[in-house]
Write a structure and sequence with these properties.
Blueprint (H helix, E strand, L loop, with lengths): L2 H16 L4 E2 H7 L1 H7 L9 H17 L5 E4 L5 E4 L6 H13 L6 H13 L26 H10 L3 E5 L8 E13 L2 E8 L4 E6 L3 E7 L14 H8 L4 E10 L4 H6 L2 E6 L2 E9 L2 H6 L5 E5 L1 H16 L1
Antiparallel strand pairs: 1-3, 2-3, 4-5, 4-8, 5-6, 6-7, 9-11, 9-12, 10-11
Helix pairs in contact: 1-4, 1-6, 5-6
């Protein structure tokens, strides 16, 4: 889950838990900073009501899927109000406690501690450990890249950035001018989605390939920020996970374990090589190049040609 969304859902849950009366959609919009920053106050003058309504409905659905029971009541004026009953059951306390615990690191530690204090105020007894029923769980979001914090803040503040980025098939990094939208963790790696100004298109960047410092730039965004940023789906398609056919490759016996995990068939060839059949989708050539001399593409011919072209580009520098 992207950081901005997780923080927004936590704040919405705490807002519903902390109210003594049902809150209208407009009141919730004005009470949650993420909504105000994205859509302005709920006075109907911002022109963003439709976008806010779509996000609010998705957020409510997400909270309900996480197990939070949201009650609704209609006022005498016909306005719908939302609230959450004050008493937390064990499962709800555990779920919200774990969600807060995830963020107990770096700049988010203070916000996580504040969230737990609000849970106490919402009815969680002092002598109850919200992690107790799940004591073996130690949720953590791994963050090792120096680019994470400046990009997180840039996404929050809607500030364009500049950084040097080395593609998997390039020998040297190149400068990228990006309007950052969202950060998301997928299979242990962090990715940034945003608008690449130089290419005039949406792009996804793996943070581990950002070199040097992330530098902020003034000015406003030149491209609209989509309501939903599908980082995982984009990365999965580039990694060949959305596949409509198969490819046959040779792989060294002691290498390429991520490829082996995706193989639909494996056959030992001897002499330190195996033959694998793997799903073939858009972007598989870029992924195979990362394994260097440990992989040889057998078929289809177009995949082999794409891999050879990428390797030649790397060799030329």
């Amino acid at each position: 889950m992207a950081i901005a969304k997780a923080e927004r859902l936590m704040n919405l849950a705490l807002c519903l838990l902390g109210t003594r009366r049902p809150l209208s959609k407009r009141e919730l919009r004005d009470s949650i900073e993420a909504y105000v920053e994205a859509f302005g106050p709920g006075n109907g003058a911002s022109g963003n009501d439709d976008s806010f309504n779509r996000m609010f409905e998705r957020d409510k659905d997400d909270l309900r899927e996480l197990g939070l029971v949201i009650e609704t009541v209609e006022s005498l004026e016909g306005e719908i109000g939302y609230y959450k009953r004050q008493t937390l059951d064990a499962e709800e306390a555990a779920a919200l406690g774990l969600a807060a615990k995830v963020w107990q690191q770096a700049r988010l530690a203070g916000a996580a501690s504040g969230a737990l204090q609000k849970l106490r105020a919402a009815g969680l007894p002092e002598d109850v450990d919200p992690y107790g029923p799940h004591g073996a769980l130690e949720p953590r979001i791994p963050v090792h890249e120096a680019a994470f914090e400046p990009l997180m803040l840039a996404c929050r503040d809607r500030r364009p950035v500049v950084f040097d980025y080395r593609k998997a098939t390039a020998a040297r990094p190149e400068q990228r001018h990006v309007e950052p939208w969202a950060l998301e963790c997928w299979r242990g790696h962090w990715y940034l989605a945003g608008w690449d100004r130089d290419r005039g298109a949406e792009r996804v960047f793996r943070l581990s390939r950002i070199t040097g410092k992330v530098r902020s730039r003034g000015g406003r965004y030149t491209a609209p920020v989509p309501d939903v940023v599908t980082v995982r789906e984009t990365v999965a398609s580039w990694a060949g996970e959305i596949a409509d056919r198969s490819a046959r490759i040779r792989l060294r016996s002691d290498a390429g374990y991520p490829l082996r995990a995706k193989a639909t068939a494996v056959r030992e060839l001897g002499n330190g090589w195996d033959e694998l059949e793997i799903p073939y989708g858009h972007g598989l050539d870029a992924w195979l190049v990362e394994f260097g001399p440990d992989v040889v593409v057998l078929e289809p011919a177009e995949l082999r040609a794409d891999v050879v072209d990428r390797l030649r580009a790397v060799a030329k520098g």
